[in-house]
Amino acid sequence: MLIGSNTLKIVAIILPTLIVTQVGCIGPSGTEPVRVTSTSEWVAISKPGAAHQLLDPFAGEWDLKISHYSKPDVAPSVSRGTSKVSWILGDRFLQEDLTGEIDGEKFIGVGLMGYDNSKRKFTTVWVDNMNTAIADSEGDYSTEQHLFTFTSKIWDPLVGRERQSKSTVRLVSEDKYIFTSFDKAAYGEDVRVFEIEYLKKQAR
User: Fold this and answer.
1) Which ranges constitute the DSSP H helices of 21-145?
2) N or C, which terminus of the chain has less Cβ within 10 Å?
């Protein structure tokens, strides 16, 4: 998400920004993408459904605690921000408008989150003022863990190749959720890069 002198690894921050094989994943029955054979079927999959309702807890105005982990064994830098998340386009997508600060730099981002009835996947898109790339991801929701897990592929100009990133969103309560983004270490394990704690304003 963010690309700066020492913040390239922030590329996967989103709202909102889920893995492909969770136990108890939510969505229409089946896992294969949908193929429609009639106009009525097309109309049906074009409408928001039960999977979209799972996203409703994210709607609202939030205070943020943003933690950036530059190294696994170093305490994170912590800053504050705010976020407004609203339904748009007939409750098909959530739009997030985020304002904050990361490592002393002003940070402004806009994200979209939804559920693709055709792909049977939750999807996200993210843009911000620290990058010229459009980041997108897709994934699933684990009913047992109350956890969304997203995966995406991003171009890493530091190494000159594409790499995979992962992010999770954990619903703690109706007034709190936690977004976490991970990067792949040299030895292949997921290393936490960002953690954003969302606390609903009216809950404070």
Assistant:
1) 39-45, 50-53
2) C
